[in-house]
Amino acid sequence: MMKDFVKNTIESSVVLSYFRGPDKSRQSWAESSVLRIIHLIVNFPGKLLKAAYGKWENVFEHSLVFRLLKYLADKMHMVIGLMLIIVMIVPYHIWRNEYSVLLAAGLAVLLLIRLMAHRESVIETPSIDYSILLFFASIAVAAATSLFPMESLKYLVHYIVAFIFLVVIVSTIDTADKLNLLVKLIAFGTFLTALYGIYQWKVIGVPVDPSTTDLTLNPELGGRVYSTMGNANVYGEMLVLTIPFFGAIILNEKSLLKKAAWLVMLAPVILILFKTGSRGAWVALAGAAMVFVFFRNIKFIPVIIVLGLIVMQLLPAPIYNRILTIFSGDKSTDYRGKIFSSAISMLKDYWLTGVGLGPGIVTTIFERYKTFGLTKAAHTHILYLQLWLEAGLAAILTFLLMIFRMVRDTFSAMLNKKDPAINNVMYASLAGIAGLLAMGLADHVWFFVRIMFLFWINIAIILSAVKITGKKQPE
Fold first, then answer.
1. Contact at 8 Å (CB) between 428 and 182?
2. Crossing angle, helix 232-252 and helix 176-199, to 10 degrees?
3. Most CB contacts within 10 A, which of 273, 348, 414, 475?
């Protein structure tokens, strides 16, 4: 009787009905004149290139350089994956944000070659959710109306790079096999960073940094591994974004041997996650795991909770004690509280338009609002507050709308169950996003541009999965 009551309650839920029903806003967007105009404008250069290729095909095909570029354009999913590995594995002291600009430029060239040489290739504007276009539009407006326009326009480049990668992924990843290979390359890149982290820990040695570790509360923690990211918390953010893909890969692999191989690769990644000493990352990954299990099979959530409690008791003392300090607070918690109260005062004056794109501008204006005892703050330590202060009300609202839309797409995939393998990839992407957004409640997780960039890669993977699943629908 109780089982029937619960079942009927769930099935009559207004929220579930909304997620189960047709996405009317997506349908309206797909049929809108605005999208048709955008699609025509964006794909007009591709039409010109196709015409040029059709007229001088022999000339192009006799060019060794063109044939090489065409080959790479045909293997775009592999090129993107290799580029993402580069983004992840280049050590912090070598990495320059200009490198991502060069990678995006190279990817844009390959996309143009693909558009030129393949009649059916287009930039898939209908597959890019309208909420994402609205968000990036609000970011562009924030840069143009900034209190320091030149600084904001320079910072806008990072968003443009992320947008280029998103567009290229959505436009070129058109099969489940390509999507799975891309995800495997991301996971392999994560594995390489873990190996580097172990080398850093065991061979080079990581000294204890009192500025990032309260030694009175964590005397036995030791040096915190940061691998290629230059900061242990930032590396933890990267791992939270990418570790869920291991779950999708292990579930999707048919061979037990391959499943075992990916489990072996996951082991050093989990080990090095603990060595980051990032409490936020530990909690966020646990939350990400819950999100993944919720979408994959909600019945296993109690099992995951029990296993989590058991694992807690088996953790080494330094890690267990580090987790307990979440509830006791430390110097960094107190300092962040002062930053938050000062930032709220600043928000009251700039809640509508923000002060301008880029954390440097927020830091400059923040000097007028900081309370006694605060030194210079690099950011607000809260993603949502930082984004609101930088880009205004439109940016934070469209950002939240975008996240809601991604949850809806994933929830729809869970209910429809059209392709379990693609669904697993979607669950992993959303789980990573959820974990990072949870960390965003206590840190500005986009402060390091590579993390912001990888966040948008996860978004692009969800959009690609939605597109591929949609193409499999019967006409």
1. no
2. 140
3. 273
The identity of residue 111, as a single letter, is L
Torsion over CA: 341, 343, 346, 350 (sign) = negative
Confidence check: pLDDT of 220 > 80:
no
Q: Quick one: average pLDDT of 180-203? A: 97
∠ Cα 308 274 203 (to 5°): 150
- Nearest-angstrom CA–CA distance, 376 and 367: 7
Amino acid at the residue 306: V
| Burial group, residue 5, by CB count within 10 angstroms (0-12, 13-18, 19+) | exposed
State the pLDDT at residue 327.
62
Q: Among 452, 419, 447, which Cα is nearest to 433's?
A: 452
| Token code pair at residue 7 | 């079942």
DSSP state letter for 31: T
- Whether 261 is covered by a domain: the verdict is yes
Is the pTM above the cut of 0.85? Answer: yes
Quick check: 79 and 72 in contact, CB under 8 A?
Answer: yes
Which letter does DSSP use for residue 8 in this model?
A: H
pLDDT of residue 253: 96
> Which one is predicted more confidently, 350 or 370?
350
Note down the domain range covering 256.
Answer: 126-471
Cα-based distances in Å from 309 to 277, 278, 320, 435: 19, 19, 12, 19
Residue 267: is its pLDDT beyond 80?
yes
Task: Classify residue 289: in a domain, yes or no.
Answer: yes
- Residue 79 is predicted with a pLDDT of 97
Confidence of residue 6 (pLDDT cuts 50, 70, 90): very low
Tally the domains of the chain.
Answer: 1
128: left (phi over 0), alpha (psi -120 to 50) or beta: beta
Contact 366, 377 (CB under 8 A): yes
Spacing of C-alpha 344 from chain mean position: 27
State the angle between helix axes of 279-297 and 383-416 in degrees (0 to 180), rounded to the nearest 10. Answer: 20
CA-CA distance, 74 to 233, in Å (whole number)?
37
Regarding predicted confidence, which is higher, 320 or 389? 389
Looking at the domain assignment, is residue 133 inside a domain? yes
- Does the residue 235 lie in any domain? yes
Of 393, 412, 323, the C-alpha closest to 353 is: 393
Cα dihedral: 194, 195, 201, 204 (round 10): -140
Dihedral sign for Cα atoms in the order 123, 450, 327, 299: positive
Instruction: Answer yes or no: are the C-beta atoms of 371 and 341 closer than 8 Å.
Output: yes
Query: Poorest-confidence range of 25-34, 334-343, 361-370, 379-388?
Result: 334-343
Find, among 301, 302, 283, the residue nearest to 292 by Cα: 301
